[in-house]
Structures are given as C-alpha cells and as structure tokens.
Write a structure and sequence with these properties.
Layout lengths: L3 E9 L2 E9 L6 E5 L2 E6 L7 E7 L4 E11 L2 E8 L2 E2 H11 E8 L2 E8 L4 E4 L2 E2 L3 E5 L2 E8 L2 E9 L7 E7 L2 E3 L5
Antiparallel strand pairs: 1-2, 2-3, 3-4, 5-6, 6-7, 7-8, 9-10, 10-11, 11-12, 13-14, 14-15, 15-16, 16-17
Main location: cytoplasm
Function: Plays a role as an inducible effector molecule that mediates Fas resistance produced by surface Ig engagement in B cells.
Keywords: Apoptosis, Cytoplasm
C-alpha cells in the first residue's frame, strides 16, 4: 500500500469500520478498502479528480470518497456518508443513536440503539427484542449470551433533552460511550 493517502474510521450500528484509500497520482490508480477488504480497484485513470462510491457495513450504507485538486499536484480527500460529510453524519448520528461499550464474559460488547426504529445492535448483529410499556416510559428487553439486558426510555421532563435512554445489564446501569 504505497499510495495510501487517507484512512477514516466510521462508526455505524453494526460496528466501527475502517476505510482506506490509495490514490496513485502518477498512474491515476484508485483502490478503496473497507475493513481490509478491497472494494474498488481502478488502474490507469486519466482523470485524477472525481469520486468513488461504495457501501459500508451490514446496512450497506452509501459512502463516497471525493478527490479534489487543491493546488498543482496536491489533492484533498473527503469522505461522505449517506450524502453528508463524515463530520455532519457523525454529529447527526449522535442525535439518532445511543452507544454503550461494556465487557461481558471477558469480551467487549458494543450495543447501539437506533432511536428512530428502536433497533438494537450488539457487535454487528441486530438483536431480537421485546418492547413493553411501563409506568414511567418503555423498556426494550434483549439478551446477550446469558445476560439480561434492558434499554429504558424515560422522558427527561425537559423538551430540549427529550427522552433519556439507559442500558441496564444484569441489574446494573452502563454508562453511555462517546464516539
């Protein structure tokens, strides 16, 4: 990988994906790797600027690498996810998902709640869940191995804060991770 020019880490519901981009500015070669697997390879491209579009993760999220000339033979590489810059996408994602990272049976678990669909993911797998209404909100139950897990959704009572989601595993509250 001598022409490696950019590496991005993208946190999606099914995990954190590594995107690598090779750009041969003399040959015009373009190679895109997702999690170490080659997704796109183009040799001898005469146009050195442009874009490469591919998918990432289990949900086949659309990703585009933009190649722009900055000055002379210098190039800038930006990554868009679902049509938004990576920064905007991640800012928006922090509003639409909650993520918790915890250790269960000596293994790291990454639990993601998609607030719009109430889908729960654990280490890249969509979990079977059971939702129920309780006195102060809702509870979404699922299990990881032999562990009982529950995401409680309770109103904060403040309009700006909205609903507070809390992950409880084996009767202990797990702090939310910052991605």
């Amino acid at each position: 990988m001598t022409d490696l020019v950019a590496v991005w880490e993208v946190a999606l519901s099914d995990g954190v994906h590594k995107i690598e981009f090779e750009h041969g500015t003399t040959s015009g070669k373009r190679v895109v790797y997702v999690d170490g697997k080659e997704e796109i390879r183009k040799e001898w491209m005469f146009k050195l600027v442009g874009k490469e579009t591919f998918t990432v993760g289990a949900a086949k999220t659309k990703a585009t690498i933009n190649i722009d000339a900055v000055s002379g033979f210098a190039y800038e590489y930006t990554l868009d996810i679902n049509g938004k810059s990576l920064k905007k996408y991640m800012e928006n994602r922090s509003k639409t998902t909650n993520t918790w990272v915890l250790s269960l049976d000596g293994m790291e678990c990454r639990v993601v709640l998609e607030k719009d669909t109430m889908d729960v993911w654990c280490n890249g797998k969509k979990m079977e869940t059971a939702g129920e209404f309780v006195e102060d909100g809702t509870e979404t139950h699922f299990s990881v191995g032999d562990h009982n897990c529950c995401i409680k959704a309770v109103s904060s009572g403040k309009r700006k804060e909205g609903i507070i989601h809390t992950l409880i595993v084996d009767d202990r509250e797990i702090p939310e991770a910052v991605e």
